[in-house]
Write a structure and sequence with these properties.
By secondary structure, this protein is mostly helical. The chain has 17 helices and two strands. It has a two-stranded antiparallel ribbon. The termini are far apart.
Length: about 325
């Protein structure tokens, strides 16, 4: 067990006796990750950078062709930090340093020599169909991996991970509405990928008790319902619009209350809502990922979506449209 300096000695002894454990001060690695992350996040994950550097400096690398370097970078340099990225949000400086090493390796730069990089790293991270090579932007890939953990918290509510985080950060059981909170752990800080998860998914209406009419995303094609409604919403019905979606469902027929829908929404929105089918058995609402046909979150589709959110296309030359066509 690892104790803070603020824990009194008698409490340390009582806790260690309860769990039949001993106190340690030398922090070892667990599954290649630091069990304790201090103030310097870059220093805590410096071993990842060192491992990538060692792999790229291997003697076989000098004999590789350009295609061989691509395989090396895709299979090794991107694979080494993957597990850490699924648990922690790595510092941006660390991601930049690893990407710089990968770029130097791609262009054949050795030791202290300087070679021209004929394409920017951002261009090389585009998919091959768009003229890139398909490398990953590590910060975006990191968020896509953390989004997978947020998805697991939503789907597996009986898991130990969900129970621990729920007791600490979202006692109501709704991880989508959870905040960072005061003095959070470093692993929970990485759950800011939840905000991107909100942009890429929506609620499927079951009994409607979990979904808020204005604040949540539940109508296909409408990302911000409150912005679209506030201009036309009548003051008489505003109090009702601040309720859950269940208030729009007739409790006897388990179908939409047409009078309420027409009073609150314009005909276009009413038509879109009527295409949704609430659960007749009162099943709970659930969240789906809109960028997969199955509705299940995947890192690959999340990476492509997060890249448009976090790293939109940079400035291009004047004849970019002709080059894209070519």
């Amino acid at each position: 067990m690892v104790f803070s300096a603020n824990v009194p000695p008698d409490k340390k002894q009582a806790i260690m006796a309860l769990w039949n454990a001993s106190q340690i001060q030398q922090y070892e690695k667990y599954l290649g990750l630091p069990p304790m992350v201090g103030r310097s996040k870059t220093q805590a994950f410096s071993e990842i950078k060192h491992k990538v550097w060692q792999r790229l400096q291997g003697w076989k690398h000098n004999l590789f062709s350009q295609g061989g370097r691509e395989v090396l970078l895709q299979s090794l340099a991107l694979a080494i930090p993957s597990y850490a990225m699924s648990c922690f949000k790595l510092p941006s400086t660390l991601c930049t340093d690893i990407e710089r090493m990968m770029a130097h390796s791609w262009w054949g730069q050795k030791k202290g020599e300087r070679k021209i990089h004929w394409q920017s790293w951002n261009s090389m991270c585009k998919s091959k169909s768009l003229g890139g090579i398909g490398f990953k932007e590590l910060e975006v890939f990191n968020m896509a991996m953390l989004g997978k953990q947020a998805w697991r918290l939503m789907q597996y509510k009986n898991s130990l991970l969900h129970k621990i985080y729920s007791a600490r950060y979202f006692p109501d059981g709704n991880v989508l509405k959870a905040s960072i909170g005061g003095n959070p752990s470093y692993t929970w800080r990485g759950k800011e990928a939840k905000n991107l998860l909100l942009q890429g998914g929506r609620w499927i209406v079951g009994n409607g008790t979990t979904i808020h009419i204005l604040k949540d995303k539940w109508i296909p094609g409408i990302s911000d319902l409150s912005r679209e409604l506030r201009a036309n919403l009548q003051q008489h019905y505003y109090r009702h619009a601040d309720c859950p979606v269940a208030s729009l469902i007739d409790p006897h027929s388990r179908w939409w209350d047409l009078a309420k829908l027409r009073a609150l929404f314009n005909p276009k929105l009413v038509e879109a809502i009527l295409k949704l089918h609430p659960s007749h058995l009162g099943e709970e609402d659930f969240w789906v990922w809109e960028h997969e046909k199955s509705g299940i979150y995947s890192v690959s589709s999340a990476y492509n979506f997060f890249r448009t959110c976090l790293a939109p296309d940079r400035g291009t030359c004047s004849n970019a449209s002709k080059r894209k066509k070519f």
